[in-house]
Structure formats: structure tokens, C-alpha cells
Amino acid sequence: MLPRLRILELVSCERLERLPELPTTIEEVFADNCTSLMTDNVGILTNYKMLQRISFTNCVGLLENQQMHDMATSLWLHLFKKCIVKSGHFSIYLPGEQVPEWFGYKLNGTSVSMQLPNDWYNDKFMGFAICVVSDLETTWLSVHEGYLQEMPGISIEFTIKSHLRRSTSCLMNIGFVGTNKNVASDHTCLAYVPFEDYWSMYKNHIDSPNNWYQIDFSANSLRKHIFLKSWGIRLVYTDDLQIFTS
């Protein structure tokens, strides 16, 4: 075993049925196109405290059934508990098209507008949970950041509107996967983005986030071919850990 391994790429290992035991240092697992991988073994990933990025695109053995939904929930809770202690991004990419129930704000379509409640921002606010369902023929965006190959992902555009009649947009990549192979089936990306990533860009221009009244989420407008089918959005607070685990 490699004791300092941080990123594991098992892409297109079509005979792989079970994930190997991994070192505690592991942060990212890409097992895309591992068509024999079975659901009952994937749960071992909840043993790794440093984990922050998981991708199982085109893993047809991970059938969209109750067992897979339970596994996705377990992985989400595992990563969410970690971000309570150590703020940071995380994402999970899985086959299927169901937006989990714990995303309270859900909408079908290529974009979504979320009305923010009054005083939505307080010292317990952590960040945004985002779920995106898309096919894997139109969502690719290549990036190059210390990996063995190009790492595609989804580029999301956020437009923030404030009571001061300002509108500001920014782009963020979420849901990185380990292959650029197009797949004609729906997949779901579950991602969490800490609020500090947004606030660092706007804190010099606005007194309080409570001046924001709406956030629009959409595909990157510079890439018109990207087609996103449905969304789930949730404002995440520290108290949500108890809600998610109940």
C-alpha cells in the first residue's frame, strides 16, 4: 500500500468488482467506467476521513435502487460531517437521475432561481449543497490541476442579486470526474461549496450577505451546449447535521 496516496484513478478497470483497501491519506477516488463495480463494496469509502471527491460515472453495476440511494446518502453524510470540522469542497458523482429528498428546493430545468429568506445569513450558515442531474454527453469541461490526465467537470454559473440593485455572476467547477468518455445516460452530481468561497469575492462590495435576495444557478453561459436537466439546492447550517442523521 502507498501510505501517502491522495488521489486514486481506477478509470476503465472493467473487471474491478470491489474497491481495494486504501490508506488513510486518500482524498479523491475516481472509478469511472468500472462497469463491474458493485454497490455493496462502495460503502467502505466512509472509513476515510480525508476524502473529498468521489466519481463513479458509467458504473452500470451501481444500479439506481434503494441500496444505491442508501449508499449515496451514507457517503454524503460522511463528507458532510467532515466539513463541519474542516471547511472545504466535496462532491460525489453517481449514475441515476434522482434528486435526494434532503435537497428541499428542487426544480426541473436547465437553471434555477432561489429566493433567499429574510436574515438567511447568520453565524451558523456554512455553505450551499447543490445537486445537478445531467447527461454525460454535454457537460464536459476540461481542467488540468495535478492529475495524470485531463479532469472534466461541470461549470456552474452563480448570479447573485441584492437589494442594492446589483447583480454579480461568478463561475465554479463542481463534480469532477475521471474520464472524458461520453455516456448517453443520466448521472447525478452531489456537491457542497463553502460560503467563504463566495463571500471572499463580494465582501469588499457589500455590507452583509443578508442584502442578497436571490441566487440564480445555471450552466456556464459561455458553454451553450451544456444541458442540465434538474436541480436540488439547500442552504446548509451547522444544525443540519442533526437533521440529516435523524
Automatic annotation (TrEMBL):
Domain C-JID, chain residue ranges per copy: 94-241
InterPro entries assigned to the protein according to its UniProt record, in alphabetical order: C-JID
Superkingdom of the source species: Eukaryota
Keywords of the record: Leucine-rich repeat, Repeat
Protein name from the UniProt record: Nematode resistance
